[in-house]
């Protein structure tokens, strides 16, 4: 359990180890043991970024307050709320701002991000975001997120209070170097698959006839799957498996796959809903009333 001068904190459980960056709240690296005892690097480390805003190139970022790209006609990276248009970076903004350390133990760390003048430019809500990373065992990491709408009367109009829209996602970049690509299968229990359009949105869904896909399938390079039937996403080459679990299961209806072109990595992501939900007025958005809370948990398990 330690931190370096650059704000990188480490948690450990036996030989399992995770590093979290306080400057961005980003889970940067993760090493877990398989059930046979092999220590494996699970996440692709992010590269140092020189320009902001930019989405991380590795690690396991959280998407908040929205996942995906927000876009309107002739106005990319924007959304409209009560007749006012706001900018929104890809996958939200929580990775762009420094976090505060709340608690740090050997196997667990809790970080907080609260609304400020900079976040209000993107998102006109007084929010609180608290995230705990815990190495529960040597082969599993648990990430618990609590989102709060800390009510401010300035958000309201005389006609109605303004509820806070949230649709999050978990976006791990899994390091695939130790996996046999030809034997790796991806398991996504979904009802529909969607191609990704030029704006980053979902094309009309096609019925999914199977829940296992070859890792080498071009379809997985960038695809969206909706109508999830359970809360387990998984990939395995027969020798080792990685499972992503998410709770509450009913809150996450969608999964997204993505392969970065410049790295041996694979993203397998649970999303609350389809992209651009705020502009399309889609189901799956949670609207937090004043002083409301939304709690979510993600697990990465190596076996």
Order of helices and strands: EEEEEEEEEEEEHEEEEEEEEEEEEEEHEE
Strand portion: 35-45%
Q: From the 3D structure, determine the CATH topology.
A: Beta-galactosidase, Chain A, domain 5
Total number of strands = 28
Termini, distance in Å?
A: 25 Å
Kindly report the spatial arrangement of strands forming the biggest sheet.
11-12-13-14-28-24-23-18-21
Radius of gyration: 19 Å
| CATH class group | Mainly Beta
Mean pLDDT: 92
Give the count of helical stretches: 2
The total domain count is 1
CATH architecture: Distorted Sandwich
Task: Report on the biggest sheet.
Answer: 9 strands, antiparallel
Give the fraction of residues assigned to helices. under 10%
Structural class, from helix and strand content? mainly beta
Low-confidence stretches: none
Explain what this protein looks like in three dimensions.
By secondary structure, the chain is an all-beta fold. It has one domain (2-302): Beta-galactosidase, Chain A, domain 5. Helix content is 3%, strand content 44%. It has a nine-stranded antiparallel beta sheet with strand order 11-12-13-14-28-24-23-18-21, with no helix packed on it. It has a six-stranded antiparallel beta sheet with strand order 17-26-25-22-19-20, with no helix packed on it. It is globular, with a radius of gyration of 19 Å.
Compact overview of the structure:
The protein contains 2 helices and 28 strands. With 303 residues, the protein is mainly β.
Which key terms come to mind for this protein?
nine-stranded antiparallel beta sheet, mainly beta, Beta-galactosidase, Chain A, domain 5
